[in-house]
Amino acid sequence: MQITDVRVRKVTKEGKMKAVVSITLDNEFVVHDIKVIEGEKGLFIAMPSRKAADGEYRDIAHPINSETRERIQSIILEKYEIAALESEEAAF
């Protein structure tokens, strides 16, 4: 599986959520609404989720193993950092 496209939409309001991302897998499948979150230990991703009847949030789509999650997170955060730098440069 290859991540063939990453689209970053930065969130302009203050808060822990920094961006919403869509990824394309193998030019055939898209996952929308992956969130880039600023946590206590730095940036991380949160997969798309839905609030269940019991009030808990459950992922709608997610990697099956930690290696895949790490690979997806690494690529997303790399693209997020590039987008953040470009927006800072555009502000000047």
From TrEMBL:
Keyword terms of this UniProt record: Cell cycle, Cell division, Septation
InterPro entries listed in its UniProt record: SpoVG, SpoVG_sf
One GO term (biological process): sporulation resulting in formation of a cellular spore
Superkingdom assignment: Bacteria
Homology family: Belongs to the SpoVG family.
Protein purpose: Could be involved in septation.
Classification via NCBIfam families: PRK13259.1
HAMAP family in alphabetical order: SpoVG
Protein's name in the database: Putative septation protein SpoVG
